[in-house]
Amino acid sequence: MGKLTSMLGLLLTHPLEFRTLLQFYLYHETKRDITAQQEHPTSGWDRASMRRCWKFLDLTSRSFAAVIKELEGDLARTICMYYLIMRGLDTIEDDMTIPDEKKQPILRQFHELTVTPGWNFTENGPDEKDRHLLLEYHIIVEEVNRLAPQYKTVILDICQKMENGMADYAHKAATNGTVYLETIADYDLYCHYVAGLVGEGLTRIWSASGKEASFLCDQLELANSMGLLLQKTNIIRDFREDVEERRFFWPREIWAKYGFTEMKDMYEKGDIEHATWIQSGMVLDALRHACDSLDYLHLLKNQSVFVFCAVPASMAMATLALCFMNPEMFQRNIKIRKAEAAQLIMRSTNTREVALIFREYARVIHHKAKPHDPNFLKISVMCCKIEQWCEQNFPSFVILNERGPTYDSADKRTAIFRAEEKKVAERLAADPRNAPLPQDFFPWELAAYVVGAMLLMLGLSALIVWVMLKFIPQA
Fold it and tell me: Which are the contacts of 234, defined by CB distance < 8 A and separation ≥ 6?
């Protein structure tokens, strides 16, 4: 009843958003049903333990659960387990009721505990929201040990790297009290541990599955940037919630130079101008990962893997545009509207469309930028880099439609392209041998020359050996 009421209210107040949501609910079909009988061999739905793991996924992340379930083959089950392991590790690290002397050995051995049959953890605080996952962690252990070796190795390796980074930060918090990240380099390192490594693990899993190119697992810088874009967006958006819970992720290098001594001063002192300048600096820092993220998406070939990566990236750009120069962000946790999220999900199906989404939100950010902001020029340059990436890879004067590509007559590049076409046609008319080679052309004549030369060389070598054996006396 509540959902119906909200939809009716949306129809009256935002009719265009109502139409978008209606289209999404009516026409956006899930690509895979993991409960179907034919999916059981790869989804594991026929096992009670795996069904419980899918339930844990729904409970811990509704947004990620949907895209994970649509991954092809055994990737869905593998990424489900990967996510639950990372969630379990994060739950222990975040729980401030666990003493540091107890937390340290658990964190640093978590990759071993994850494959120890029967292990679970019962000492989380009563208010820890995902404590139920660790109470039944022995179920996770059972399913992790069923994963294919190539996946299990990657997941445990990433878990080991991440747990050590988390343990270091947890120890600093326990010994020093409140921990601030001092520099942007510290901020990057923290985000690497909590998100960049997740991107590295996913990339290695994509390659190990054979659904993506084997060289993709070497693109770790791009994978790290993808993770950092998403993590930094969340850190910007969740500012108020994190500060109230005394989690300080914004680097002091960005905010302290404007006269604030504590992060809460940004909303308590009422200095909106300087607060939004700091906000601008944080968005600027996140935007430097945008082009790397587009490069990463450009390398993906499997549709389900692409959508899994593209949807969060598109939503991150939308969130950055929403947060930029928005004082409301300092007062409450703001999110993009449901209709906008639905539109992004429906659009994020190919690299060109995602690039256009990035460009649209980069233009929104640039439009909201203010000349007296110290970051104005840098923001403008960063938005320009996104525009440049789009133009370089998907020129705007080329218009794609059902009948094939057409060209924008109002764009000067179209005239240049037409002139080049005319020159080619004239050269072809003058001498047909200037015709471009067909795409399926194989240079048989060149191949015959190469093979003939090789045979000639072999013949001469054989002749020389025969002469040496025949006429040169042996010692």
Answer: none
Residue carrying structure tokens 């109230």: 244
Q: What is the pLDDT of residues 203-216, one digit of tens each?
A: 999 999 999 999 99
φ and ψ at residue 292, rounded to 5 degrees: -60, -40
Q: Which listed residue (77, 87, 204, 237) is catalytic?
A: 237
Would residue 146 show up in a list of annotated catalytic residues for this protein? Answer: no
Which parts of 288-398 fold into alpha helices (H)?
290-299, 303-323, 338-347, 351-368, 376-393
Of 84, 37, 23, 36, nearest to 57 (Cα)? Answer: 84
pLDDT band at 100 (very low <50, low <70, confident <90, very high): confident
Structure tokens at 191: 């985000």
Of the candidates 190, 239, 267, 324, the residue annotated as catalytic is: 190
149-160 pLDDT, tens per residue?
Answer: 999 999 999 999
Say which of 137, 151, 248, 308 is annotated catalytic: 308
Annotated catalytic residue 52: no
- Would you state the structure tokens that stand for residue 395, as one six-digit string? 């020129």
- Has 32 been annotated as catalytic? no
User: Looking at residue 437, what DSSP letter applies?
Assistant: P
Q: Is the dihedral of CA 220, 226, 232, 234 positive or negative?
A: negative
Told to judge if 215 belongs to the known catalytic residues of this protein, a careful annotator would answer no
Q: How many angstroms separate the CA atoms of 323 and 335, rounded?
A: 9
Strand, coil or helix: 63: helix
Q: Which residue in this structure is represented by tokens 């490594």?
A: 197
> What does the radius of gyration of the chain's CA atoms come to, in whole angstroms?
28
